[in-house]
Amino acid sequence: MTPVLELKDLHVTLRQHRHATELVKGVSFAVGPGECLGILGESGSGKSMSMKAAMGLLDKGFSVSGAAMFQGEPLLEKSGEELRRLRGGKVGVVLQNPMTCFDPLYRIGAQIAETFAAHNNWDGEEILRRSLELLEKMRIRNPEEVLEKYPHQLSGGMLQRIMIGIATAMEPSLLIADEPTTAIDAITQYEILNEFLRVKQENQTAMVFISHDLNAISRVADRIVVLNQGRVVDEGDFQHILHHAQDPYTRLLVEKRADVMRRYRQVLAGKERSYA
Ligand SMILES: Nc1ncnc2c1ncn2[C@@H]1O[C@H](COP(=O)(O)OP(=O)(O)OP(=O)(O)O)[C@@H](O)[C@H]1O
């Protein structure tokens, strides 16, 4: 089966003055329909850069080589306009900083409606119904009021949820989510991750879920790729990463998680004793 997304020996180099710095050094992976690939790695390891390069989101200072294929078509050969059409249509992209994805001058409702209208032939009533539905799915209270707000009137977490809502409502073939739950509290995060799982199962959406949060990744990802300094250093399912990861940073994340789980069990045991 043709993967939905495939990166083959992807390199990204930043050229500044006469200096060239290679930031992504030959990354390869593939994601199939209904599969979620988690990309784990510390800050600066090249997680965002790899996906931005594939989706044409880097400016002219960066040169990209290798191959990135979407449903068998080469992405690196597509024009800026073709890639723009793909994003928000067949490919949903949820970026790290939600503020940059909204226009400060327009109300949230108008921005959701614009995205819906650009990619569907829904009438005004259908757009309003779907806009309210997406806010409700993202656990946003008073959705009618929220549609009337400007971006600066909402919290970062709310904007992040709205962005996830828009991307998932478009039922894309591929959803790329870069640290999508960083600004969201733990309980809402749990519900949002369920929404990712639902979309993956119901629509057979392929997903790339970028995070440095091993717990979040372990809930949604079927397979995990670990990046370190622009290279893939570990790859496998969650159990493999938990027990056999070689990379020191991955080990550190795994140990930190084990430590949290140990303390959680101790607290539970303490509670049980005090109830006895
Ligand atoms: N606009 C830029 N100009 C110059 N270097 C950049 C730029 N953006 C990123 N880099 C560098 O590219 C490397 C990879 O960055 P990238 O954003 O992919 O990291 P990341 O793994 O996604 O981490 P984070 O989670 O912190 O975003 C880092 O060394 C970073 O400093």
Automatic annotation (TrEMBL):
Principal location class: membrane
Any one of the GO CC terms: plasma membrane
Domain of life: Bacteria
Domain ABC transporter intervals: 5-254
Pfam families registered for this protein in UniProt: ABC_tran
Cellular localization per UniProt: Cell membrane
Topology term for the membrane: Peripheral membrane protein
MF terms (GO), sorted A to Z: ATP binding; ATP hydrolysis activity
SMART domains assigned: AAA (SM00382)
InterPro entries associated with the record: AAA+_ATPase, ABC_Ni/Peptide_Import, ABC_transporter-like_ATP-bd, ABC_transporter-like_CS, P-loop_NTPase
CDD domains xref list: ABC_NikE_OppD_transporters
Keywords noted in UniProt: ATP-binding, Cell inner membrane, Cell membrane, Membrane, Nucleotide-binding, Translocase, Transport
Family: Belongs to the ABC transporter superfamily.
Name of the protein in question: Nickel transport ATP-binding protein NikD
Organism, scientific name: Intestinimonas butyriciproducens
